[in-house]
Structures are given as structure tokens and as C-alpha cells.
Amino acid sequence: MDFTFVSGNLGLDLAGTIGHRRGARIDLLPTPADLARWTVRAGLLDGPPEVGADDLARAAALREAIYRLATAAREGVPYGKGDRDVLNEFAGRPPADVALAERGLRRDGGLPGALSTTARAAIELLGGPQAGLIRECEAAPCTRLYVDASHRRTRRWCDMRGCGNRAKAAAFRARTGA
């Protein structure tokens, strides 16, 4: 399974690497190599960093803290101190290095920099006015969180090409008996 980046925020995209949270969970980062690949696909680093089992466990802790904090924002309840501490600890490290190279952008900084950049993106979202725009995909069994930046704030699905298309096709079949 490949990664998708449809949440509108890098932190929510990391949280989205666990799918179907209320059912048969799907972990898109089961191995250190998967996490390394995610950092490149997310545009955080130019090449895969070294990632060990401990690094994967720390990234999973960040992922779950972001998910719980985003869920709290969505539900309008205060942020938990433990999750805030985890997020702030990651964000307190130096972010990924970005520089203009001879032929374009260069991104480096290893896994710590990539996770710091991700945590900082989550903080910007959760601490700003867009925290009130966090939604959960309405398509079962998807549980992806996303920022509803639509004009009327009526977006229902994390991604129109995937969940939205499936939901609309199912509704059409139900209406027409097809």
C-alpha cells in the first residue's frame, strides 16, 4: 500500500498512516524502512534516512499524539498534557534542513529533522484558527482526519478520488438498485 497526502497538513498525514482506526487497523509504517520511505514521499528529505526500531517506536508515539490532539480539536475538548509534551518535544528539535542547491531544493536533516518538521506543522495547525476545521472522513471504514479548507466548509471525505468516489458510487447504486 502506498502513502497518501490528502489531509492538508503534514501532521495529519502522519496520523493517517494508521487506517481504519475503529476496525481492522492498517499500519502503513510497520517497519523502519517504511518510515524512511514516508519521509521521502512526504517531501521532508531527499533520500531515506537511517531508521531503527527505536526510531520507529518514537515516530509511532508522535503519530498517536498528533491523532489524539487533532481529535480533541475536532471535538472541542482541551488538549492532553502528555500528548502536548510529546508534540512539543519533537518540535523542539532542529527541523529538516532546506537549502537552495545548484539545481533546486535540497532537503536533509535525517529522521529527527523530518519528525521535527512534521511536529511543527501539527503545532501550527492545532494552535491556529484551522484547528476548528479538522474533520474526520465520513466514508466507512476510513477514519482519516483532514483540514476542511473547502469554500463552504462542507467537505465530507478525506479524498474525492478515493473515499468520496466510493461513497457517491454506493449512494448511486442504492438509489438506482444497480
Automatic annotation (TrEMBL):
InterPro entries: ABATE, ABATE_dom_sf, Znf_CGNR
Domain Zinc finger CGNR: 134-175
Record's signal peptide: none
Pfam families given in the database record: ABATE, zf-CGNR
Family matches, as Gene3D superfamilies: Jann2411-like domain
UniProt protein name: CGNR zinc finger domain-containing protein
Record organism: Nonomuraea spiralis
